[in-house]
Write a structure and sequence with these properties.
Radius of gyration: 21 Å
Structural class: mainly beta
Number of helices: 2
Strand content: 25-35%
Order of helices and strands: EEEEHEEEEEEEEEH
Mean pLDDT: 74
Largest sheet: 6 strands, antiparallel
């Protein structure tokens, strides 16, 4: 990789930067148009996890293309309105989780404000917990939990809430940092002894 492009994230087909993150065992875990540093933090928890919204579907090239970028001919990208420059250009946020497994049973965690029901997410390779998702029962008053079907029946969502994930800080590293600290370029999976430094 040349030095000029080393600090820039990859771009997807819609023109949004794609940030990739790996587990500490170097397994790819997350690809997102938002960096972890730009995500809100759940301050009510002792571990202070990042809050990441998981979209229902990926943006397609028909949704926003290079011709329809939300700018008029005279407007420069630096003059865009709002906090999210990609939204102003018509680029939607997306995030994908890779190589993770979900705990089949919820864990109940005691907090000062009561209890919390969490479904832990683990790296599928090393089983390191990378985050969790909450149960719908934690959002009793939130809009979207109550579902009304076409025939008029109403029911409440139960189980794991899949549109948000809370990511533990320190559980992942970005691809650039992983590349820079890869023990002098030794390929992943190569065994090396500490004493000799040889394979």
């Amino acid at each position: 990789m040349d030095q000029l492009n080393a600090d820039r994230p990859d771009l997807d087909s819609t023109g949004a930067p794609v940030y990739t993150y790996h587990c500490l065992c170097k397994q790819l875990i997350l690809a997102s148009t938002q960096s972890l540093d730009s995500l809100p933090i759940r301050t009510s928890c002792i571990e202070k996890p990042y809050i990441l919204r998981l979209p229902d579907k990926l943006p397609s090239s028909e949704d926003s293309g290079p011709e329809d970028n939300g700018l008029n001919d005279e407007q420069e990208p630096s003059e865009q309105q709002g906090d999210n420059p990609f939204k102003a250009r018509g680029v939607q946020h997306f995030a994908l989780l890779f190589s993770t497994i979900v705990s089949p049973k919820a864990q109940v965690v005691r907090k000062t404000s009561g209890f919390e029901k969490r479904y832990l997410r683990y790296c599928s390779r090393c089983k390191l917990p990378i985050g969790y998702q909450l149960d719908w029962c934690m959002f009793a008053d939130e809009e979207g939990q109550q579902v009304t079907e076409a025939n008029g029946q109403q029911w409440k969502k139960t189980g794991r809430r899949m549109d948000y994930i809370y990511l533990f800080p320190g559980g992942m590293i970005d691809t650039k940092t992983m590349d820079e600290t890869c023990d002098g370029g030794i390929p992943v999976g190569t065994l090396q002894t500490r004493e000799s430094g040889k394979e």
